[in-house]
Amino acid sequence: MATEAAKNSILNKKTALGIEFGSTRIKAVLVDENHIPIASGDHEWENRLEDGIWTYSLEDIWSGLQDSYSNLVKDVKEKYDVELTEVGAIGFSAMMHGYMAFNEAGDLLVPFRTWRNSMTGQAAKELIELFQYNIPERWSIAHLYQAILNEEPHVKEITFFTTLAGYIHWKMTGEKVLGIGDASGMFPIDMATKDYDAKMIAQFDALIEEKHFPWKLEEILPKALPAGAPAGVLTEEGAALLDVSGKLKAGIPICPPEGDAGTGMVATNSVARRTGNVSAGTSIFGMTVLEKPLENFYPEIDMVTTPSGDLVAMVHANNCTSDLNAWVNIFKEFSESFGMKVDMNDLYGTLYRKALEGDPDCGGLLSYGFFSGEFIMGMEEGRPLFVRKPDSKFNLANFMRTHLYTSMGALKVGMDILTKKEHVEIDKLLGHGGLFKTKGVGQRFMAAAMNTPISVMETAGEGGPWGMALLASYMINKEADETLDHYLAEKVFHGDEGTSMDPDPADVEGFEVFIERFKNGISMEKAAVKDLLS
């Protein structure tokens, strides 16, 4: 019966498709009218460090999108014996921040600069001083201003700059728009107008006036749109780009494109005030929807918005599971050297669960999983590092626990500012992303790190692309004046709070010991960056 119902949803175009560009995977998720995932497709990819810039090529972007969609179509065909040619609505999301600048002909002027780059320190510092507002190094405006400071010749040719999600949406629809959540990672948003802060735009234009560029900032930013707003339809050109088979029909409505932070909030039903979520994958970030603005501004905390435009405190760390994954692959190699074929899900599960046997403070071990710079910790570059004292308790359980703890380390440093300095109250915190896939491990350690109950839903593994599909569904199915938080609470989650885990007092105490070791040892990481050059 479930298969037949899903098939009818597809045939009657009562579906919504969400496609998200994550750091290591491009995933497409198709949901039915009950918001249940009924098909998916994905494509693995990886960013490259080229000429000192973390980037993905345009070829990688488009071939990855096409492969992800093609795999979704195959999944639909295999499960329901239906050729997918139409859906009810589509939404595209991607990693927030970054810099994609285009000229009048629509050509990309410089390689895509992702969120992972931390070479905009001077720009961020000067803009913070100008605006009296935190401008992180990842933000698009920091990248633009750094290019100006560097006197990069491409700047005078810019007619449009945007994020990866905004770029994909533009090519699908011809519309230069962006969901307000993703837009809030490009330039500060005014909570009163739910648009870019006009005063700060004027300040920026005055700052660069002597450069005599042929553009004003407002002219080259994408238009910011709230969740639910119409954002264009799939054009013939867009359909041909997405579906290389040529079977996908044009005219499908497409919702405002969003960043992965926004889709994470939606996927965990964390868009209402006093709620929060933690997304843990290649990078890690915690989002807390605020009741009121913070008393002070902090370099460690981004002020962004929900997809509806409500104020959010975001703690973003560049590094989470990359080093952890690298160590798991070492164990895979070890197993294969003995002729043992190991299932990766089993391997991850076994090693993660082993960490539960470790000492609450990791037995004196310490690691830094910094593949790239980590602003919260004052790092412009990263060097994965593991260190211990001769008398540390060095065993497999503590080793794995250390790498799981350190994947949350920078996040905890930032979140402690919210909870301990600003006394922000959070009613619930939900976890999603790859770190939570092994049941009861990432959830337990995150509860210890945050010292608050952590809930994980069955949909935690679906994450962003499912959240994007929900935003597409909201656009076409919402009732007049229905808010996003009402739609999610009443029509998607129906009171489902997920499986909650309270922090274990011993784990909390142990994590506090570990985080002091983590903060005190940062000089070793800085020395590794300085001395380990090649």
TrEMBL record:
InterPro entries assigned: ATPase_NBD, FGGY_C, FGGY_Carb_Kinase, FGGY_N
Domain Carbohydrate kinase FGGY N-terminal: 16-261
Gene3D superfamilies the UniProt entry points to: 3.30.420.40
Any one of the GO BP annotations: carbohydrate metabolic process
Pfam families: FGGY_C, FGGY_N
Gene Ontology terms, MF aspect: kinase activity
UniProt entry keywords in alphabetical sequence: Kinase, Transferase
Domain (Carbohydrate kinase FGGY C-terminal): residue spans on this chain: 277-475
Family, per entry: Belongs to the FGGY kinase family.
PANTHER family: SUGAR KINASE, XYLULOSE KINASE
Protein name (record): ATPase
Organism: Mediterraneibacter butyricigenes
